[in-house]
Specification:
The chain contains 12 helices and 19 strands. The chain has 451 residues and is an alpha/beta fold. The chain is globular and about 70 Å long.
């Protein structure tokens, strides 16, 4: 075949061209290989090179003494905090300097009660989410929810049940840890545990078996098996429903006996995992406290006796004020113009009782009932209920870390994780500063920036 004239070249020119072609091919192969290795590294959670960063804000709320320290700075070295204190006393060396004028730097906040696989009930009822939304849709929503909570300044979140999405929270946690999607450090409970016949969805003809929003158990042997099975599927903790609306006329009544609850606590404890209890009746709370749970979720029916028992046993209360506040709003209440409904007022009174009785407060709003990323609403409602701003800020940082057994975070101290959030303003003087996020850092790496 005769080569077109535009393709013809001398043998000498061809000899000069071949090495160039080979070099380009090798270079392209190297770039492709390097890119593939880099992508595999990101997917596998490979650590980025350590970076030293000196953060210089207007003030530092370290989560330890409830004050804002002026003239302080924080030095992060890789994923850990290397130093904190007056700027002049920190040897920053070659650290990159990040100026945060007008901002307060504080520990990344910890969400004590979220449901990443739920979205607000005024968008879709709980029954509809559990029965009509595919697990694929719910998981995609959950990834968006996790991102929203992280960017709102919450660098850790305790997810207390997938509500029918099985073990998808374990996959979400792994995706976040591997850098596939942004989100807080997740503490997951997978399916949660309910007494057979007590949970929902409800309202169907008795001949139909409807998928449940949690895992049902009856008796000691089944409780033991299910706790172990959930742990085997990746649960970091066990959530149990100590009471629910299964009494006459759907009245809330205890579900498990104290002995059954104690068995679940015993089995979980042997693996080093805590148990937390949904409980809103005085009797359900009492059984759960005596069984050895670490926190009571909701606690609407608490009494002076149960508060005293909680304090005695070191059990925290996660009141989830924002959930009831939000459902009242969905029912037509306008907080800006209408008097608070009786249920909302009663909840605030119970929270104030528990606080004055010395019960440790776990800050968690039952997010998912209301919008993910609006987590600060729970903090605002706790302050409105009569808890001091200082105590609530301590609770959502170092307090939650202590109740959840997280020794590596929750305060700004040398050696702890560099999980940090900068807010625009001073939250002690103006709580709304928590809604003005300037910077979110998780493990020394910037996750969100709006300076």
């Amino acid at each position: 075949m005769t080569m077109p004239s535009c393709w013809r070249m001398s043998r000498a020119a061809l000899r000069r061209l071949v090495p160039m072609i080979v070099a380009i091919a090798c270079s392209t192969s190297f770039v492709a290989s390097s890119s593939a290795q880099e992508m595999r590294g990101r997917r596998s959670g490979a650590a980025a090179p350590a970076e030293r960063v000196l953060y210089i804000p207007d003030g530092v709320f370290d989560g330890l003494d409830g004050t804002v320290h002026r003239g302080w700075a924080v030095l992060a070295n890789g994923e850990r905090i290397a130093a904190v204190g007056p700027v002049a006393q920190i040897n920053a060396g070659d650290a990159r300097i990040v100026q945060l004028p007008g901002m307060t730097l504080m520990p990344g906040m910890i969400e004590g009660h979220t449901h990443m696989f739920l979205h607000p009930y005024d968008e879709a009822a709980w029954n509809d989410q559990v029965l009509h939304e595919s697990r694929a849709e719910r998981t995609i929503r959950a990834a968006n929810h996790a991102k929203a909570e992280l960017f709102a300044g919450f660098t850790t979140a305790r997810d207390l049940g997938t509500e029918g999405a099985m073990y998808a929270d374990v996959g979400l946690k792994e995706a976040i840890d591997n850098g596939v999607t942004p989100g807080p450090r997740m503490i997951v409970s997978t399916r949660a545990i309910v007494a057979t016949g007590a949970y929902g969805p409800k309202g169907f003809a008795p001949e139909w078996s409807v998928p449940q929003g949690a895992e049902e158990v009856s008796g000691f042997e089944e409780a033991t098996r299910v706790v172990r099975d959930q742990i085997g599927h990746g649960a970091d903790l066990i959530k149990v429903y100590a009471d629910y609306g299964w009494g006459p006329n759907y009245r809330t009544m205890p579900t498990f006996t104290q002995e059954e609850l104690a068995r679940m606590v015993q089995v979980a404890a042997s693996s080093g995992r805590p148990v937390v209890a949904h409980a809103s009746t005085a009797e359900g709370m009492k059984r759960a406290i005596l069984a050895g749970v670490t926190t009571i979720e909701h606690g609407d029916g608490g009494t002076p006796e149960t508060w005293a028992l909680m304090k005695q046993h070191g059990v925290g209360l996660c009141p989830t004020m924002a959930a009831g506040w939000s459902t009242a709003r969905y029912a037509g209440w306008n907080p800006a113009t209408d008097p608070a409904p009786a249920r909302v007022k009663a909840k605030a009174e119970k929270v104030r009782e528990a606080y004055l009785a010395g019960v440790a407060m776990c800050v968690g709003g039952d997010v998912g009932v209301f919008t993910h990323g609006e987590n600060v609403l729970e903090i605002e409602l706790l302050v409105q209920a009569g808890i001091s701003v200082k105590d609530v800020l301590m609770a959502v940082t170092s307090g939650n870390a202590a109740l959840l057994g997280l020794r590596d975070r929750g305060s700004i101290q040398q050696g702890l994780l560099a999980d940090l959030v900068a807010v625009k303003g001073d939250p002690l003087a103006d709580l709304s500063a928590l809604r003005r996020i300037g910077l979110v850092v998780k493990g020394g790496r910037t996750q969100f920036e709006n300076r």
